[in-house]
Design a protein that fits this description.
By secondary structure, the protein is α/β, with parallel strands linked by helices. The chain folds into 2 domains: 7-218, TIM Barrel (Alpha-Beta Barrel), CATH 3.20.20.70; 227-293. It is 45% helix and 11% strand. It has helices at 14-19, 22-26, 44-56, 71-75, 86-97, 117-128, 150-153, 161-170, 185-191, 202-206, 208-218, 227-243, 249-252, 265-278, 285-293; strands at 7-8, 12-13, 35-40, 61-66, 104-108, 135-139, 175-179, 197-199. Strands 1, 2, 3, 4, 5, 6, 7 and 8 form an 8-stranded parallel beta sheet that branches.
């Protein structure tokens, strides 16, 4: 749907990689490349070992999460709470950059709690950029670690795109990527007037066509598959997974947004959910859902 997009994993903690099963945590399909590994942690040596492991597994970038506001993450002393300790973040980035050849990047917020964004955000960037890292993905909101849930922290603190634009003006040498509230094409187009890229989160999942829409605007010369062509490409993967004992719903549940904001999307979703229950190991239910979306009656 967007072949030039860079995908990011969910956050994987450095401790989990050290004490858990790296195969389970790091395995991916070759089709997902280029792929970045997002790490959580605050121990420079442990993060360095995790980064080296990520490079050995073929990831194209190591990204340090300094933006997650959950209570569990705070208890582990990583995520957004690290915005209060830029020197430690710089130490972590430097430790990782010293042991890998791939880029080490940082995803952060504008600040936390009562920090004045206008001052602390730029101080944080300037300190961490000495580590060195040249790429900052900025969720253009503050994170409130006290009083707001992780879900509320995605919506309640106001977006301040102007601070991201100011960062790029002050530090044109840095690659600045905007995150937060990037939910439609006009926002993508506006972002590229003041920064170098955008990171799209949940909207790319719930409205799959949006990802293609943004990609088509950026790379009009690259042809993109239609939903029917996508399904044709997916069927062999579903057949492989079903043969390995996985229910088809493990994959089809991620395709419910394929026709978001298009005619027939409700029929498509209802059919796909129903057939994934009644025919749990039959990948061709995707074709049936497409027929129904187009206005045909279900044959199953």
């Amino acid at each position: 749907m967007a072949p030039r997009a860079l995908l990011y994993t969910e956050m994987v903690t450095a401790a989990a990689l050290e004490h858990g099963d790296p195969t389970k945590l790091l395995t991916y399909d070759a089709l997902e490349q280029p792929l970045a590994l997002q790490l959580g942690g605050s121990d420079p040596a442990q993060l360095a070992r995790a980064a080296r492991l990520g490079e050995d597994w073929g990831y194209q970038e190591i990204n340090l999460n300094v933006g997650c506001p959950s209570d569990r993450v705070q208890q582990g002393t990583f995520g957004a709470c690290l915005m209060a300790t830029p020197a430690l973040v710089a130490e972590c980035v430097a430790a990782m950059a010293a042991v890998v050849r791939i880029p080490v990047t940082v995803k952060c917020r504008l600040g936390i709690d009562d920090q004045p964004e206008e001052q602390t955000f730029f101080e944080f960037i300037d300190r961490v950029a000495q580590a060195p890292t040249q790429v900052f993905i900025v969720h253009a909101r503050k994170a409130w670690l006290k009083g707001l849930s992780p879900k509320q922290n995605r919506d309640v603190p106001p977006l301040r795109y102007e601070l991201v634009a100011e960062l790029k003006r002050r530090r044109p040498d840095l690659t600045v990527v905007l995150n937060g509230g990037v939910n439609d094409l006009p926002t993508v187009q506006r972002a590229f007037t003041f920064c170098d890229g955008v990171m799209i989160g949940r909207q790319a999942y719930h409205h799959l066509g949006f990802l293609s829409e943004a990609h088509r605007w950026l790379y009009p010369q690259i042809p993109l598959p239609t939903p029917h062509e996508l399904v044709e490409q997916l069927i062999p993967h579903l057949e492989r997974d079903c043969a390995a004992g996985f229910r088809v719903q493990a994959s089809t549940r991620h395709l419910l947004g394929l026709f978001a904001h298009q005619p027939g999307t409700r029929r498509y979703k209802q059919t796909l959910m129903r057939l994934s229950q009644t025919h749990p190991y039959q990948p061709t239910i995707l074709w049936e859902a497409l027929r129904v979306q187009a206005g045909a009656d279900s044959a199953l």
